[in-house]
Each structure stands twice: as C-alpha cells, then as structure tokens.
C-alpha cells in the first residue's frame, strides 16, 4: 500500500527527510563551524535547509498515515482491537490500558472504534444511531490529518443520522437531504470515541 503515496511529493519528502538527518541544528552548527559559508554558498545552504524542513513538515503526515492505514486494515474481517478491512468499522470492545499501543495515549474511560475509508470510486454513507446521555464523537480526517468533519454531541447532538463522505470533486449522484462532507484525499480515517463511566457502564455500551 505504500506505493500509493510514492508520487513526486512523497519522494521529495523522503529525500528531504534523509537530508534533514544530515542537517539537524546540532550537526548544522558543527558543520558551519568548520565550513564558513559566505555569499552564494550561504544563500544556497540556507535555502536547501529551509526547503527540507518545509517538505518534511508537509509530507510527514500522509506518509505516516499510509503506514497506519496498511497496518490497521491488514485483516480479512473486523477485529475487536480496532483493525478492519477498508470501508469497514473495527470496534474496540474493551477499555484500553498501558498494554495497548494503537493510540499513543488512550483514555481509560473511552471505548474506541475506527475505520479507514476509500472514497475514490464512490462516496461512503455513514449512519450514526441515536446516542443519549453519553459523550461521543466521530472524528474524520484526511491523509494530511486535516479535519473533514467532527460528528459528535457538540455538532450533531444525540439524534444521530445519516452523513455522506465524498472525495472533493465527486460529480455523481448524492442522496437528497443528507449532509455531505468532502475530503481532499482519497483515503480518510474515522476515529470514533464513546465515553463510559465504569465497568458496568462499559458492558452496556458494547
């Protein structure tokens, strides 16, 4: 799946990342102490360094998101640890603790569910059931981790509903009377969270 992102942008980013390893601030300072850049050489050095930083910042997110996409969708059916094939939801049916590594700092009062969706050929229709008296959010981001939409108590309320997720530029038919949210990238990540209070509440939520 990594090949999906091996285009001009990501190749330039990877090359810039390699360049950055040789031009971290500490190494750059040491190098400049032995090589006195002046005039045109100094301008070219500063430009190359600034370009490498910008390319790395721009391209790091989609490369790492593609790694996560490959790892979290490399199963044949949804698992109870959050893994699931593309366009399927992987529910996590227990509260996480220090042993879990899929999220950097998982909450111990939150049930997670996640999905990776491919919007290249057609939009995705997402149904959210009615969720009353409980914190919930479905955070949806593109491959640059830019927000597509955050569905939750604060934006939707507890009534739920149907929502369409489409790639920007899609010109096909769309359901009438349904909110449509557009992604700038083909793949999106849906990270759902459902608040729970204790072990008994966890059993009711799963």
Automatic annotation (TrEMBL):
<feature type="domain" description="DUF1254">
    <location>
        <begin position="86"/>
        <end position="202"/>
    </location>
</feature>
<protein>
    <submittedName>
        <fullName>Exported protein</fullName>
    </submittedName>
</protein>
<keyword id="KW-0732">Signal</keyword>
<feature type="signal peptide">
    <location>
        <begin position="1"/>
        <end position="28"/>
    </location>
</feature>
<dbReference type="InterPro" id="IPR010679">
    <property type="entry name" value="DUF1254"/>
</dbReference>
<dbReference type="Pfam" id="PF06863">
    <property type="entry name" value="DUF1254"/>
</dbReference>
<dbReference type="InterPro" id="IPR037050">
    <property type="entry name" value="DUF1254_sf"/>
</dbReference>
């Amino acid at each position: 799946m990594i090949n999906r992102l091996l285009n001009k942008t990501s190749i330039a980013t990877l090359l810039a990342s390699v360049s950055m390893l040789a031009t971290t601030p500490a190494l750059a300072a040491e190098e400049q102490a032995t090589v006195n850049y002046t005039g045109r050489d100094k301008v070219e050095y500063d430009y190359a360094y600034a370009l490498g930083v910008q390319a790395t910042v721009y391209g790091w997110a989609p490369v790492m998101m593609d790694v996560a996409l490959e790892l979290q969708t490399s199963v044949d059916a949804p698992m109870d640890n959050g893994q699931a094939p593309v366009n399927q939801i992987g529910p996590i049916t227990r509260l996480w603790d220090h042993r879990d590594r899929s999220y950097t700092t998982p909450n111990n009062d939150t049930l997670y569910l996640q999905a990776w969706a491919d919007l290249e050929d057609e939009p995705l229709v997402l149904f959210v059931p009615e969720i009353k008296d409980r914190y919930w959010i479905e955070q949806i981001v593109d491959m640059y981790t830019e927000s597509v939409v955050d569905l939750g108590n604060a934006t939707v309320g507890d009534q739920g509903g149907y929502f369409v997720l489409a790639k920007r530029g899609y010109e096909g038919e769309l359901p009438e009377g349904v909110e449509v949210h557009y992604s700038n990238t083909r793949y999106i990540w849906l990270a759902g969270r459902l608040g729970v209070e204790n072990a008994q509440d966890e059993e009711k939520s799963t």
